[in-house]
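Attaching the record inline, Q. Sequence:
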Amino acid sequence: MNIQEIVAILTNSGIEQNEANVEVKMLIEHYCNYGIKDIIMGRPLDYEKLKIVKEKAQLRARTKLPIQYIIGATYFMNNLYTVTPDVLIPRDETEIVVRHALKIIDDNNLQTVLDIGSGSGCIACSIAQNTNCKVLSCDISEKALNIAKQNAKKLNIQNIEFIHSDLFQNISKEQKFDLIISNPPYIPKGTDLQKEVTFEPKTALFTNDEDGTEFYKKIIEQGKIHLNKNGYIVFELGINQSSIVEEYFKQHNYSNIIIEKDLANIDRVISAKI
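Structure, as predicted:
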Protein backbone atom coordinates (compact mmCIF):
# COMPACT_ATOMS: atom_id res chain seq x y z
CA MET A 1 0.00 0.00 0.00
CA ASN A 2 1.30 3.44 -0.93
CA ILE A 3 0.06 7.03 -0.90
CA GLN A 4 -0.87 6.96 -4.59
CA GLU A 5 -3.23 4.04 -3.93
CA ILE A 6 -4.97 6.02 -1.18
CA VAL A 7 -5.30 9.07 -3.43
CA ALA A 8 -6.87 6.79 -6.06
CA ILE A 9 -9.55 5.75 -3.56
CA LEU A 10 -10.71 9.36 -3.51
CA THR A 11 -10.34 10.14 -7.21
CA ASN A 12 -12.20 6.96 -8.13
CA SER A 13 -15.12 8.21 -6.02
CA GLY A 14 -15.34 11.41 -8.07
CA ILE A 15 -13.15 13.72 -6.01
CA GLU A 16 -10.89 15.87 -8.19
CA GLN A 17 -7.17 15.03 -8.27
CA ASN A 18 -5.92 18.21 -6.60
CA GLU A 19 -8.52 17.99 -3.85
CA ALA A 20 -7.73 14.30 -3.32
CA ASN A 21 -4.01 15.09 -2.97
CA VAL A 22 -4.73 17.78 -0.37
CA GLU A 23 -7.11 15.56 1.59
CA VAL A 24 -4.70 12.61 1.74
CA LYS A 25 -1.98 15.00 2.89
CA MET A 26 -4.33 16.19 5.67
CA LEU A 27 -5.05 12.60 6.70
CA ILE A 28 -1.36 11.69 6.79
CA GLU A 29 -0.45 14.77 8.80
CA HIS A 30 -3.23 14.07 11.30
CA TYR A 31 -3.08 10.30 11.74
CA CYS A 32 0.62 9.72 11.05
CA ASN A 33 1.98 12.93 12.55
CA TYR A 34 3.99 13.21 9.36
CA GLY A 35 4.87 16.52 7.72
CA ILE A 36 7.27 18.24 5.34
CA LYS A 37 10.21 17.85 7.75
CA ASP A 38 9.67 14.10 7.80
CA ILE A 39 9.65 14.00 4.00
CA ILE A 40 12.94 15.93 3.88
CA MET A 41 14.48 13.65 6.51
CA GLY A 42 13.27 10.59 4.62
CA ARG A 43 11.39 9.19 7.62
CA PRO A 44 9.30 6.18 6.51
CA LEU A 45 5.59 6.14 7.13
CA ASP A 46 4.32 3.76 9.79
CA TYR A 47 2.38 1.00 7.99
CA GLU A 48 -0.23 0.57 10.73
CA LYS A 49 -0.94 4.31 10.75
CA LEU A 50 -1.11 4.31 6.97
CA LYS A 51 -3.81 1.63 7.23
CA ILE A 52 -5.84 4.09 9.33
CA VAL A 53 -5.37 6.73 6.64
CA LYS A 54 -6.66 4.26 4.06
CA GLU A 55 -9.71 3.46 6.21
CA LYS A 56 -10.51 7.16 6.60
CA ALA A 57 -10.10 7.72 2.85
CA GLN A 58 -12.52 4.86 2.22
CA LEU A 59 -15.00 6.46 4.63
CA ARG A 60 -14.65 9.76 2.79
CA ALA A 61 -15.14 8.09 -0.60
CA ARG A 62 -18.10 6.01 0.54
CA THR A 63 -20.09 8.64 2.45
CA LYS A 64 -18.78 11.98 1.10
CA LEU A 65 -18.42 13.09 4.73
CA PRO A 66 -16.15 16.18 4.62
CA ILE A 67 -12.53 15.45 5.44
CA GLN A 68 -12.61 18.12 8.17
CA TYR A 69 -15.33 16.23 10.03
CA ILE A 70 -13.46 12.95 9.64
CA ILE A 71 -10.32 14.50 11.13
CA GLY A 72 -12.32 16.62 13.57
CA ALA A 73 -10.28 19.74 12.88
CA THR A 74 -9.32 22.33 10.29
CA TYR A 75 -7.11 25.40 10.01
CA PHE A 76 -8.42 28.96 9.97
CA MET A 77 -6.07 31.95 9.94
CA ASN A 78 -3.18 29.69 10.96
CA ASN A 79 -4.98 28.25 13.99
CA LEU A 80 -6.27 24.70 14.28
CA TYR A 81 -9.97 24.57 15.19
CA THR A 82 -11.97 21.61 16.41
CA VAL A 83 -14.96 21.02 14.12
CA THR A 84 -17.86 18.57 14.26
CA PRO A 85 -21.11 18.34 12.27
CA ASP A 86 -22.56 20.70 14.91
CA VAL A 87 -20.68 23.62 13.32
CA LEU A 88 -19.98 24.96 9.86
CA ILE A 89 -16.57 24.13 8.46
CA PRO A 90 -14.50 27.36 8.42
CA ARG A 91 -13.68 28.38 4.87
CA ASP A 92 -11.01 30.48 3.21
CA GLU A 93 -13.61 33.05 2.11
CA THR A 94 -14.42 33.82 5.73
CA GLU A 95 -10.80 34.78 6.36
CA ILE A 96 -11.38 37.67 3.94
CA VAL A 97 -14.34 38.77 6.07
CA VAL A 98 -12.26 38.66 9.26
CA ARG A 99 -9.38 40.62 7.70
CA HIS A 100 -11.86 43.23 6.45
CA ALA A 101 -13.20 43.60 10.00
CA LEU A 102 -9.71 43.74 11.51
CA LYS A 103 -8.83 46.66 9.26
CA ILE A 104 -11.96 48.57 10.31
CA ILE A 105 -11.17 47.86 13.96
CA ASP A 106 -7.57 49.02 13.60
CA ASP A 107 -8.38 52.12 11.51
CA ASN A 108 -11.07 53.30 13.94
CA ASN A 109 -9.68 52.08 17.27
CA LEU A 110 -12.81 50.05 17.98
CA GLN A 111 -13.14 48.36 21.36
CA THR A 112 -16.22 46.12 21.41
CA VAL A 113 -17.38 43.48 18.92
CA LEU A 114 -20.48 41.28 18.66
CA ASP A 115 -20.19 38.13 16.54
CA ILE A 116 -23.58 36.72 15.57
CA GLY A 117 -23.46 33.00 14.79
CA SER A 118 -20.48 31.63 16.71
CA GLY A 119 -20.23 28.29 14.94
CA SER A 120 -16.74 26.95 15.62
CA GLY A 121 -15.79 30.32 17.09
CA CYS A 122 -13.32 31.00 14.27
CA ILE A 123 -14.51 34.57 13.58
CA ALA A 124 -14.79 35.63 17.22
CA CYS A 125 -11.52 33.97 18.22
CA SER A 126 -9.63 35.49 15.28
CA ILE A 127 -10.81 38.98 16.15
CA ALA A 128 -10.16 38.55 19.87
CA GLN A 129 -6.70 37.12 19.22
CA ASN A 130 -5.65 39.88 16.83
CA THR A 131 -7.06 42.91 18.68
CA ASN A 132 -7.60 44.19 22.20
CA CYS A 133 -11.35 44.21 21.63
CA LYS A 134 -13.80 42.74 24.07
CA VAL A 135 -15.68 40.18 21.95
CA LEU A 136 -19.13 38.76 22.62
CA SER A 137 -20.22 35.85 20.43
CA CYS A 138 -23.70 34.33 20.30
CA ASP A 139 -25.31 31.32 18.66
CA ILE A 140 -28.74 29.69 18.65
CA SER A 141 -27.09 26.26 19.00
CA GLU A 142 -25.82 25.15 22.42
CA LYS A 143 -23.81 22.41 20.71
CA ALA A 144 -22.04 24.96 18.52
CA LEU A 145 -21.31 27.13 21.54
CA ASN A 146 -19.66 24.18 23.28
CA ILE A 147 -17.31 23.74 20.32
CA ALA A 148 -16.60 27.49 20.16
CA LYS A 149 -15.76 27.57 23.87
CA GLN A 150 -13.42 24.60 23.46
CA ASN A 151 -11.59 26.38 20.65
CA ALA A 152 -11.25 29.63 22.61
CA LYS A 153 -9.89 27.71 25.60
CA LYS A 154 -7.46 25.75 23.43
CA LEU A 155 -6.16 29.01 21.93
CA ASN A 156 -5.98 30.57 25.41
CA ILE A 157 -8.10 33.56 24.38
CA GLN A 158 -9.28 35.61 27.36
CA ASN A 159 -11.07 38.63 25.86
CA ILE A 160 -14.06 36.67 24.62
CA GLU A 161 -17.45 35.58 25.95
CA PHE A 162 -20.05 33.23 24.46
CA ILE A 163 -23.80 33.35 25.08
CA HIS A 164 -26.81 31.41 23.86
CA SER A 165 -28.99 33.76 21.82
CA ASP A 166 -31.15 33.76 18.70
CA LEU A 167 -29.69 36.89 17.09
CA PHE A 168 -30.19 39.70 19.67
CA GLN A 169 -32.83 37.88 21.75
CA ASN A 170 -30.71 37.44 24.89
CA ILE A 171 -28.66 40.61 24.46
CA SER A 172 -29.78 43.58 26.51
CA LYS A 173 -30.92 46.66 24.58
CA GLU A 174 -28.52 48.65 26.73
CA GLN A 175 -25.57 46.57 25.52
CA LYS A 176 -23.92 48.30 22.58
CA PHE A 177 -20.98 47.50 20.32
CA ASP A 178 -18.58 49.27 18.00
CA LEU A 179 -18.82 46.50 15.40
CA ILE A 180 -21.21 43.66 14.65
CA ILE A 181 -19.93 40.86 12.43
CA SER A 182 -21.81 37.87 11.07
CA ASN A 183 -21.60 35.06 8.57
CA PRO A 184 -25.34 34.34 8.74
CA PRO A 185 -27.35 31.62 7.02
CA TYR A 186 -27.79 32.82 3.44
CA ILE A 187 -28.94 29.82 1.39
CA PRO A 188 -32.65 29.89 0.47
CA LYS A 189 -34.55 26.94 1.91
CA GLY A 190 -34.95 24.12 -0.61
CA THR A 191 -31.75 24.87 -2.51
CA ASP A 192 -29.99 21.74 -3.79
CA LEU A 193 -26.49 21.41 -2.35
CA GLN A 194 -23.53 19.17 -3.08
CA LYS A 195 -23.44 16.08 -0.88
CA GLU A 196 -20.60 17.31 1.35
CA VAL A 197 -22.48 20.44 2.43
CA THR A 198 -25.54 18.44 3.53
CA PHE A 199 -23.56 17.20 6.55
CA GLU A 200 -23.27 20.75 7.93
CA PRO A 201 -25.89 22.11 10.38
CA LYS A 202 -29.05 23.23 8.59
CA THR A 203 -29.67 26.13 10.97
CA ALA A 204 -26.33 27.63 9.94
CA LEU A 205 -27.04 27.25 6.22
CA PHE A 206 -30.66 27.90 5.32
CA THR A 207 -33.05 30.84 5.46
CA ASN A 208 -36.84 30.76 5.16
CA ASP A 209 -37.08 33.32 2.34
CA GLU A 210 -36.58 33.08 -1.41
CA ASP A 211 -33.38 35.11 -1.78
CA GLY A 212 -31.41 34.16 1.35
CA THR A 213 -31.37 37.67 2.82
CA GLU A 214 -33.64 37.06 5.84
CA PHE A 215 -30.93 37.30 8.47
CA TYR A 216 -29.10 40.21 6.84
CA LYS A 217 -32.30 42.24 7.06
CA LYS A 218 -32.96 41.30 10.69
CA ILE A 219 -29.42 42.17 11.77
CA ILE A 220 -29.44 45.46 9.83
CA GLU A 221 -32.77 46.46 11.40
CA GLN A 222 -32.09 45.32 14.96
CA GLY A 223 -28.39 46.11 14.88
CA LYS A 224 -29.05 49.84 14.98
CA ILE A 225 -30.25 49.44 18.56
CA HIS A 226 -27.02 47.69 19.56
CA LEU A 227 -24.45 49.82 17.72
CA ASN A 228 -22.58 52.70 19.23
CA LYS A 229 -22.48 55.96 17.30
CA ASN A 230 -20.35 55.46 14.16
CA GLY A 231 -20.55 51.69 14.66
CA TYR A 232 -20.11 49.16 11.85
CA ILE A 233 -21.72 45.99 10.56
CA VAL A 234 -19.65 43.47 8.57
CA PHE A 235 -21.25 40.55 6.73
CA GLU A 236 -20.09 37.60 4.70
CA LEU A 237 -22.18 37.52 1.51
CA GLY A 238 -23.68 34.72 -0.50
CA ILE A 239 -23.58 34.73 -4.29
CA ASN A 240 -25.68 37.46 -5.95
CA GLN A 241 -26.74 39.02 -2.64
CA SER A 242 -24.55 42.11 -2.48
CA SER A 243 -26.94 44.50 -4.27
CA ILE A 244 -29.93 43.47 -2.11
CA VAL A 245 -27.98 43.84 1.14
CA GLU A 246 -26.44 47.12 0.00
CA GLU A 247 -29.88 48.55 -0.78
CA TYR A 248 -31.21 47.44 2.59
CA PHE A 249 -28.31 49.19 4.34
CA LYS A 250 -29.20 52.37 2.45
CA GLN A 251 -32.90 52.07 3.34
CA HIS A 252 -31.91 52.02 7.01
CA ASN A 253 -29.60 55.02 6.73
CA TYR A 254 -26.26 53.27 6.93
CA SER A 255 -23.34 54.89 5.08
CA ASN A 256 -19.73 54.18 4.06
CA ILE A 257 -20.84 50.96 2.37
CA ILE A 258 -17.90 48.90 1.10
CA ILE A 259 -18.07 45.64 -0.86
CA GLU A 260 -15.00 43.40 -1.19
CA LYS A 261 -14.56 40.52 -3.61
CA ASP A 262 -12.99 37.14 -2.94
CA LEU A 263 -10.31 35.45 -5.03
CA ALA A 264 -12.98 34.14 -7.41
CA ASN A 265 -14.07 37.74 -8.06
CA ILE A 266 -17.36 37.18 -6.20
CA ASP A 267 -18.73 39.87 -3.87
CA ARG A 268 -17.93 38.24 -0.53
CA VAL A 269 -17.87 40.98 2.14
CA ILE A 270 -20.01 44.02 2.78
CA SER A 271 -19.56 46.55 5.55
CA ALA A 272 -21.49 49.67 6.49
CA LYS A 273 -21.43 52.40 9.14
CA ILE A 274 -24.38 53.74 11.11
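The longest strand covers residues 227-236. Residues 19 and 267 are 24 Å apart (CA to CA).

More tomorrow.
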